[in-house]
Amino acid sequence: MKIKFNRLLVSIIGIVLIIGVGCLLWFLAIKPAREKLEAKNSEYQPLAQYDANLLAQTEQKKIEEFRKADMAEKLYDTYMSRFMPMLDFGRRDTGMIDYWREYSNIKKVLEAFGNDPNVTTTINLSVPNPPTNPNDSLFDQPYITYTGNVTVTGDYKSILDNMERWSSAPRLVLVNASSITMTMQGDDPNRVTASYGITCYVIPWTSGGAKIEMAPGGGAAAAGAGYGTGMAGTAGMPGTTGMPGGAGMPGATGMPGATGMPGGASMPGGASMPTGAGMPPTGAGMPPTR
């Protein structure tokens, strides 16, 4: 009986000690650490809220920037469609042909626009000859410029209107303000002669396409395989009618230009080929002349 009592007493004392140690740990270690953690959380809560607000603002700003970029791209496409010819140098061969067309049109377009009915106008536009090599560095440039000089005579206001008028040109034209000079003719303010420079910008839709491997002696003829740039396979002059009669061969009909020599140098009409060089021998299936 006494032994059982001692065991119960020891168990009770052990349980009390465990509870006491737990309470001491709670009050001396766990509770202060928890209070400190809550204080830190309270301290960082505004920062976390600020970060969340900043993130939301950043996302909104990103959406706004994307919207502006989309609008700018659409505006750019609008201006490109309005002011720029369709020049795509992503393919150098076809782009070069398109640039030749632009070269032949640009002077006509700007001179036709520059004929202002309110003033007397003289336009001198410098347009360099286009390259004949599709690998020319011009097709790598982000834009191409032409320069010119304009001389106008009229009254002061009409001359100013003439300069402003270039903003509506069918190409992107900049009036060089630093080059403007004006001279009044005599004492008449309605007779003023002005001179100013202009710069025309041509921006291709794409630049710097892959370069083309050129045949030996390359240039327009080598690059223009399939485009006839070297007059390859031109229709040739028909052969002369020839004199009637003869040994069964009709008059020298000449080889058509389509069977031209490499590089587009077709055989001239009327130059008969020697026997055996692709022409049937005399009398071989050829009707006799009458």
What does this structure look like?
By secondary structure, this protein is α+β, with helices and mostly antiparallel strands. Among the domains are: 9-83; 92-202, 2-Layer Sandwich (Alpha-Beta Plaits). Helices cover 41% and strands 14% of the residues. It has a four-stranded antiparallel sheet with strand order 1-2-4-3. Strand 3 and strand 4 form a beta hairpin. The protein is elongated. The model is unreliable at 220-290 (pLDDT under 50).
Provide a quick synopsis of the model.
With 290 residues, this protein is an alpha+beta fold.
List descriptors.
4-stranded antiparallel sheet; disordered C terminus; Alpha-Beta Plaits; 290 residues
- CATH class term of the domain at 92-202: Alpha Beta
Uncertain segments are 220-290
Q: Give the topology string: H per helix, E per strand.
A: HHEEHEEH
- Total DSSP helices: 4
Task: Give the CATH architecture of the domain at 92-202.
Answer: 2-Layer Sandwich
- Number of beta-strand segments: 4
Q: Give the C-alpha Rg.
A: 44 Å
Spatial order of the strands forming the largest sheet: 1-2-4-3
